[in-house]
């Protein structure tokens, strides 16, 4: 069993052996009756369902009921495809290469602010059921970063699971579990070690459907993925002892079948995790603050110095940690800033469209006047 080639050349692409035709066809990759009903309009035009395994420039590797294929992508699609997308594939013929004719609506999508920090979102993975948030215990746990990752995961519509990796390198793993549990209310926290095998069986039981691995470089995502895959299919690398950072051995997002059923998407390490329209995700992460806020005297309470603030009262009584409230405020401000930038971009795009329409109308009127 081997993972898809990372070459961008259409003629040199290979896919996992388990990606070959099977009795279940697309169902082995998550196809269900709902998707089949949505696909009826595409099937009527001779298109076939395909799931995107990996995206390269201008092409993507896909898997279909007939096995792996390589397909062209382009500007005819409303947005670029992403690993995990379901698509309508035009299989092509002797004269035409296969191409993605359309993307199906995404049930879930993991979005973050683009690396350029502009107002557009970057899609990290699509149609995900479970998000495994890998957090290394080789360095002190950063609760604020974990809360940021959790907001990203909850907002996607998938189910997050916090995976504490490299437990064998932690001085006190139980303390890290306590801290992670406090930062992730209502979320399963699993302590794992690739060295001892601890927690892998628990994680396998929790990882259902389409599973994506998210976390910083060096957090042990690829090692964790290999444990779930039951084979060393994903490249791994050493990390620096001083800060636990790795070398980004994973450079693309890639979908690989799991032996226990479902599929795994490995992702490159995240240097930054900018929020993009994650209001609901933040409500999940800071559920206890949202609940306390309902008892504040004022509906628009900022939880700073207002009289009758139930949130501040909880902090002063020791029920709510000050750090937790500070993190909540910080992420709310960041999310509001990102939303404002998105609104500004959309307004600018609408204005540009109307200006173009107006210019076209004026040119039309001038032409008509000249013909009289």
List keywords for this structure.
alpha/beta; 372 residues; five-stranded antiparallel beta sheet; disordered N terminus; six-stranded mixed beta sheet; 20% strand; flat; Rossmann fold; 9 helices; OB fold (Dihydrolipoamide Acetyltransferase, E2P); single chain
Order of helices and strands: HEEEEEEEEHEHEHEHEEHHHH
Largest sheet: 6 strands, mixed
- Structural class by sheet pairing and helices: alpha/beta
* β-strand number: 13
Average of per-residue pLDDT values:
82
CATH homologous superfamily heading of one domain: P-loop containing nucleotide triphosphate hydrolases
Short synopsis of the structure:
The protein is an alpha/beta fold and 372 residues long. Helices cover 33% and strands 20% of the residues. Among the domains are: 10-103, Beta Barrel (OB fold (Dihydrolipoamide Acetyltransferase, E2P)), CATH 2.40.50; 109-266, P-loop containing nucleotide triphosphate hydrolases (Rossmann fold), CATH 3.40.50.
């Amino acid at each position: 069993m081997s993972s898809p080639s990372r070459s961008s050349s259409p003629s040199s692409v290979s896919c996992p052996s388990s990606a070959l035709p099977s009795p279940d066809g697309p169902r082995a990759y998550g196809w269900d009756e709902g998707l089949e009903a949505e696909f009826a309009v595409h099937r009527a035009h001779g298109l076939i369902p395909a799931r995107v395994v990996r995206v390269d420039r201008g092409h993507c590797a896909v898997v279909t009921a007939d096995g792996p294929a390589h397909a062209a992508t382009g500007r005819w699609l409303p947005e670029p495809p992403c690993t995990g997308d379901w698509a309508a594939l035009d299989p092509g013929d002797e004269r035409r290469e296969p191409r993605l004719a359309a993307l199906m609506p995404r049930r879930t999508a993991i979005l973050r602010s683009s690396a350029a920090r502009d107002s557009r979102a970057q899609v990290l993975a699509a149609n995900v059921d479970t998000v495994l948030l890998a957090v290394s215990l080789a360095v002190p746990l950063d609760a604020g970063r974990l809360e940021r990752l959790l907001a990203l995961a909850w907002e996607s519509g998938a189910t997050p699971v916090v995976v504490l990796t490299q437990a064998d390198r932690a001085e006190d793993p139980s303390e890290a579990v306590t801290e992670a549990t406090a930062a992730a209310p209502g979320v399963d926290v699993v302590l794992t070690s690739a060295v001892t095998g601890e927690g892998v069986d628990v994680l396998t039981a929790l990882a259902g459907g389409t599973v994506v691995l998210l976390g910083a470089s060096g957090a042990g995502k690829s090692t964790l993925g290999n444990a779930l895959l039951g084979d060393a299919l994903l490249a791994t690398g050493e990390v620096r002892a001083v800060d636990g950072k790795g070398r980004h051995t994973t450079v693309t997002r890639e979908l690989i079948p799991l032996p226990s059923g479902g599929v795994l998407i490995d992702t490159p390490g995240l240097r930054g995790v900018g929020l993009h329209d994650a209001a609901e995700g933040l409500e999940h992460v800071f559920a206890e603050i949202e609940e306390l806020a309902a008892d504040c005297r004022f509906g628009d309470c900022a939880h700073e110095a207002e009289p009758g603030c139930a949130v501040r009262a909880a902090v002063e009584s020791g029920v709510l940690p000050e750090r937790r409230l500070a993190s909540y405020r910080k992420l709310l401000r960041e999310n509001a800033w990102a939303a404002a930038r998105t609104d500004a971009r959309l307004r600018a795009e609408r204005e540009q469209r109307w200006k173009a329409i107006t210019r076209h109308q004026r040119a039309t009127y001038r032409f008509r006047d000249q013909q009289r």
